[in-house]
């Protein structure tokens, strides 16, 4: 066996070498080596040192875990000397294989503790004095634009400071009420955008830390910071700006620059009265409305020294009020990709429609050569009208319009503090000819490394996979939002929970959701009710089934997919309060009270087909099951038993109220069956009957979906789990609406909010709620990974320690291939049909055991390439004649072959097909 199995991908609090971490013991995780190098990690040793020298000598002066038995995956919690604020720590890890052989030490990684809590912020909040900075926007004739009255120029804040000698280290800690963009000596600090992200600013502010040593030099230096309104005081959510739903009325900055010199001394440069303020090129910048820049007003040199700021204004400074300030635990938002335009079409009157070929979130970067004084107006939209013009009705009050007023020569414009959901832009007033090289779309979202790939022989399904991923990318911006374009963009809990597992197959969203769970917990009401959105914007909507339940489902899904209990442990108190809230109002185990806005199976094509109490009760039982699971894992055995019993009682009440002796579920809706089957609410003898009724319910709709946000996520897994994969494929392959393929046939590049967002018969759905980038109905992605490709876990497994590799080939596919970078390393499943044979290639990483199920008409003939024979055979009910050969394997690459015939349809159509 090779010896190079040193751990890689070292993470502290799920992040790579963070410069600030949240309070409490840091956690460490890593991946063990390349596949093939190691069977299993038997034990590990972590060293943490306050100086790199110690680590070089293999000494952990802060913590030496010693050799500890323990498998890979999950977190190892720091248990060393108390760690100090402003500390920089170095750590490394080695592991031992089952054979006793040790690995080499990993390469060292670092983490820093950051500035500390709220009390460490001695700086003052600064903003400009609105009265002194009397900016008068040019007034135009005509009716007053009420929206414009709420827009204001972006403050530019600056000061100069001395660096008194040779720097050893320099860190900028910064946050804002609003958005900030920091510059040092003329250079932008870091590449994160829309910082500090969104939290409930009244309860919790988050700061970022930047290593800025290389940007400073002995002598006079300058710091300049731009502020934007952002989530804090911009137009946001569908409530009008001045209705009190927002946090404040102008942006403010709080920053501390820590300079550490080689001679051991250190000093702070902080926001205080000594700063100066002015306005500049950004005449307004608003999340929903857009940004307006006049480059002629740019105060050239404002962020460098020397600069004459004598005519700048004094700032208003006030001490920090004690609101919690924490290190940003999530990934930064960045421009992650740039797209070139696909097509430019002149539409008359000097306007050009640019098609980027992809619905996305971000903004435009545009290069202009001009004489000066020309205004370029850029409007953003997701669709075109039938006449080829930009369709903006579905944006509601969001304007998504950027304007750039030129000052002559070659200039490059892009906004700083706004973002738009769009595939098309309309460029109006571009001087000269707009050519493709002059523009690109900047794709903006929280930085989330791709973890999953999926491909199959059907290009439409591949497009579906791509649409799901782009929906994720367009909506994971500091919080998981419903949509990125209209005047909403909110962290709806229902959308997030139903999509969470799909998201975890696509991308590394652990730190992202971990941060958002703080928002969810912050928003919880005293009653214990989780809110419908987080941050809640103070709206107070709470308790809605399927929405509030996210407070339990998301921590559990993180545990299931990443094997980490940290989020569950942190949220446990809040989750228990939620469970008490539901139990308190619903003594008979049917959830009929405390349902808040009770949206039901949101946007199901036929409205309220599924009774809302049925859905509510199913989710309650599901919560109780997941709570029992988490309680057990956290060592809370009594709670585990309590929730287990509660889940059983709710399931019994569910069956009593909603299921007849023949397994028929009230309403006969697809969602009602999907909930009952997926959430295991039925007595064991009713699954087959209930599934047959479900299939009948689908067939009666000629194999069309009738599910809304929730039923859609559970339907195909419920069918496959109960032996009706062929029915699942028929739904997947449905071309006419409602189906996943219908929007793709219309050219969709993201998941639509509604099945009928646009139809041939009716054109656009009502503009009041018709987003073309809403990920919720993309929760079918989970089925593509878990069932089509077959990368799943044993029912009780977490963190992919016990993999269930069980592909479900469909009649319409000749091959499918998926990879998934699990917390234990990359897993691959690739199957193809070849005449009467099914070939399956799988790759299993170290520290993982896998049951590989090879569908086979004659399981006794199935082989893997080492000649080993199946250890078992599973008769798979439902799919005609389908059986599986089971192989138990450890880490490695395998090639399996078996006889295989495509199963016939479960139920023939009326016409016999
Ligand atoms: C949002 C949804 C959300 C819902 C609540 C809508 O306006 O766009 O995605 O979950 O409201 O029902």
Tell me what the structure shows:
This protein has 913 residues and is of the alpha+beta class. The chain is 21% helix and 30% strand. It has 16 helices and 47 strands. The strands form ten sheets. Strands 19, 20, 23, 24, 25, 26, 29, 30, 31 and 32 form a ten-stranded mixed sheet that branches. A seven-stranded antiparallel sheet has the order 9-21-18-10-15-12-13. It has a six-stranded antiparallel sheet with strand order 33-40-41-42-47-44. α9 runs antiparallel to α10 (637-658) and α11 (670-678) crosses α13. The longest helix is centred in the last third of the chain and has 22 residues, at 612-633. The two termini are 54 Å apart. The mean pLDDT is 93. Residues 482-483, 488, 492, 494-495, 599, 602, 769, 774 line the site of beta-D-glucopyranose.
Task: Briefly summarize what is shown.
The protein has 16 helices and 47 strands. It is an alpha+beta fold and 913 residues long.
Which molecules are bound in this entry?
A: beta-D-glucopyranose
User: What is the overall shape?
Assistant: globular
Note the main sheet. Answer: 10 strands, mixed
Low-confidence stretches are none
What topology emerges from the helices and strands here?
Blueprint: E1 7-12, E2 27-32, E3 41-49, H1 52-56, E4 63-64, E5 68-69, E6 76-77, E7 88-97, E8 109-112, E9 124-128, H2 146-149, E10 155-163, E11 167-177, E12 179-184, E13 187-188, E14 204-211, E15 219-228, H3 230-233, E16 252-261, E17 266-270, E18 276-279, E19 282-286, E20 290-294, E21 313-319, E22 324-327, E23 333-339, E24 343-348, E25 351-370, E26 375-381, E27 383-384, E28 390-391, E29 401-405, E30 409-413, E31 420-428, E32 439-446, E33 452-456, H4 459-475, E34 476-477, E35 479-480, H5 493-506, H6 510-523, H7 550-562, H8 566-585, H9 612-633, H10 637-658, H11 670-678, H12 687-699, H13 709-721, H14 725-732, H15 741-745, E36 758-759, E37 763-764, H16 781-789, E38 791-793, E39 802-805, E40 815-822, E41 825-834, E42 837-844, E43 849-855, E44 863-864, E45 872-875, E46 883-889, E47 892-899
Parallel strand pairs: 14-22, 20-29, 39-43
Antiparallel strand pairs: 1-2, 2-6, 3-4, 3-5, 3-7, 7-8, 9-21, 10-15, 10-18, 11-14, 11-16, 12-13, 12-15, 16-17, 18-21, 19-20, 23-32, 24-25, 25-30, 25-31, 25-32, 26-29, 26-31, 27-28, 33-40, 34-35, 36-37, 38-39, 40-41, 41-42, 42-47, 43-46, 44-47, 45-46
Helix pairs in contact: 5-7, 5-16, 6-7, 7-8, 7-9, 8-9, 9-10, 9-11, 11-12, 11-13, 13-14, 13-16
This protein binds beta-D-glucopyranose.
The site of beta-D-glucopyranose (BGC) has 10 residues, from helix 5.
């Amino acid at each position: 066996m090779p010896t190079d199995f040193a751990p890689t991908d070292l993470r502290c609090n799920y992040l790579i070498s963070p410069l600030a971490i949240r309070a409490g013991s840091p956690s460490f995780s890593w991946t063990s080596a390349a596949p093939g190098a190691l069977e299993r990690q038997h034990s590990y040793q972590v060293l943490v040192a306050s100086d790199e020298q110690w680590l070089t000598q293999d000494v952990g002066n802060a913590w030496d875990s010693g050799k500890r038995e323990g498998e890979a995956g999950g977190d190892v919690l720091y248990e060393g000397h108390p760690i100090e604020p402003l500390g920089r720590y170095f750590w490394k890890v080695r592991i031992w294989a089952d054979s006793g052989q040790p690995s080499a030490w990993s390469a060292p990684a670092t983490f820093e503790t950051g500035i500390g809590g709220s009390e460490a912020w001695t700086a003052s909040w600064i903003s400009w004095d609105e009265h002194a900075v009397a900016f008068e926007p040019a007034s135009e004739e005509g009716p007053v634009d009420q929206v414009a009255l709420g827009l204001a120029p972006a403050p530019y804040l600056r000061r100069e400071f001395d660096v008194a000698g040779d720097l050893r280290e320099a860190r900028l800690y910064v946050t804002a009420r609003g958005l900030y963009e920091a510059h040092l000596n003329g250079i932008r600090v870091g590449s994160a955008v829309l910082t500090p992200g969104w939290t409930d600013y009244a309860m919790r502010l988050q700061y970022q830390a930047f290593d800025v040593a290389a940007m400073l030099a002995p002598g006079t230096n300058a710091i300049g910071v731009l502020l934007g309104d952002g989530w804090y005081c911009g137009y946001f959510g569908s409530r009008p700006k001045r209705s009190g739903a927002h946090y404040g009325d102008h942006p403010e900055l709080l920053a501390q620059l820590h300079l550490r010199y080689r001679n051991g001394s250190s000093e702070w440069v902080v926001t205080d009265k000594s700063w100066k303020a002015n306005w500049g090129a950004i005449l307004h910048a608003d999340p929903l409305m857009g940004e307006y820049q006049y480059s002629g007003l740019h105060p050239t040199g404002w962020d460098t020294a020397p600069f004459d700021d004598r005519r700048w204004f004094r700032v208003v400074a006030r001490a920090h009020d004690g609101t919690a300030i924490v290190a940003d635990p999530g990934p930064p938002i960045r421009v992650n990709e740039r797209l070139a335009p696909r097509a430019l079409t002149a539409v008359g009157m000097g306007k050009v429609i640019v098609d980027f070929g992809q619905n996305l979130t971000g903004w435009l970067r545009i290069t202009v050569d001009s004489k000066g004084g020309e205004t370029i107006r850029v409007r953003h939209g997701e669709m075109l009208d039938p006449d080829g013009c930009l369709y903006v009705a579905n944006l509601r009050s969001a304007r998504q319009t950027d304007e750039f007023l030129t000052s002559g020569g070659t200039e490059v414009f892009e906004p700083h503090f706004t973002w738009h959901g769009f595939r098309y832009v309309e460029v109006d007033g571009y001087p000269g000819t707009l050519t493709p090289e002059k523009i690109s779309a900047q794709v903006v979202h929280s930085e989330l490394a791709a973890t999953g790939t999926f491909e199959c022989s059907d290009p439409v399904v591949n497009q579906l996979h791509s649409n799901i991923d782009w929906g994720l990318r367009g909506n994971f911006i500091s919080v998981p939002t419903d949509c990125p374009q209209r005047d909403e963009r909110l962290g709806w809990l229902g959308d997030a929970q139903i999509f969470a597992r799909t998201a975890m197959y696509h991308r590394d969203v652990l730190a992202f959701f971990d941060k958002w769970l703080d928002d969810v917990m912050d928003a919880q009401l005293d009653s214990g009710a989780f809110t419908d959105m987080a941050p809640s914007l103070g709206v107070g909507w709470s308790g809605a089934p399927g929405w509030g339940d996210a407070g339990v489902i998301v921590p559990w899904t993180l545990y299931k997919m990443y094997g980490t209990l940290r989020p569950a442990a942190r949220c446990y108190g809040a989750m228990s309060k939620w469970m008490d809230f539901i139990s308190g109002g619903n003594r008979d185990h049917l959830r009929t009270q405390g349902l808040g806005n009770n949206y039901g199976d949101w946007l199901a094509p036929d409205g309220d087909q599924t009774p809302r109490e049925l859905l509510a009760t199913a989710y309650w039982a599901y919560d109780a099951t997941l709570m029992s699971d988490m309680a057990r894992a956290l060592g809370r055995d009594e709670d585990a038993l309590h929730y287990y019993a509660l889940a059983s009682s709710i399931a019994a009440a569910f069956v009593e109220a909603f299921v007849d002796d023949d397994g028929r579920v009230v309403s006969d809706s697809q969602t009602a069956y999907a909930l009952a089957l997926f959430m295991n609410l039925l007595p064991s003898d009713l699954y087959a009957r209930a599934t047959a009724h479900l299939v009948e319910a689908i067939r009666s709709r000629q194999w069309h979906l009738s599910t809304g946000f929730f039923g859609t996520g559970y339907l195909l897994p419920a069918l496959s789990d109960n032996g009706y994969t062929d029915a699942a494929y028929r739904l997947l392959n449905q071309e006419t609406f409602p189906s996943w393929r219908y929007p793709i046939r219309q050219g969709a590049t993201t998941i639509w909010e509604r099945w009928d967002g646009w139809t041939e018969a009716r054109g656009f759905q009502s503009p009041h709620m018709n987003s073309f980038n809403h990920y919720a109905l993309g929760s079918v992605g989970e089925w593509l990974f878990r069932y089509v490709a077959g990368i799943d876990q044993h029912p009780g497994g977490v963190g992919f320690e016990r993999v269930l590799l069980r592909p479900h080939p469909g009649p319409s596919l000749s091959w499918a291939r998926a990879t998934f970078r699990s917390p234990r390393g990359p897993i691959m499943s690739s199957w193809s049909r070849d005449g009467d044979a099914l070939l399956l290639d799988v790759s299993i990483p170290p520290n993982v055991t896998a049951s590989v199920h090879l569908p086979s008409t004659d399981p006794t003939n199935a082989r893997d390439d080492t000649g080993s024979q199946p250890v078992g055979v599973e008769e798979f009910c439902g799919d005609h004649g389908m059986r599986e050969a089971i192989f138990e394997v450890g880490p490695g690459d395998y090639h399996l072959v078996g006889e295989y015939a495509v199963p016939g349809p479960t139920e023939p159509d009326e016409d016999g097909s």
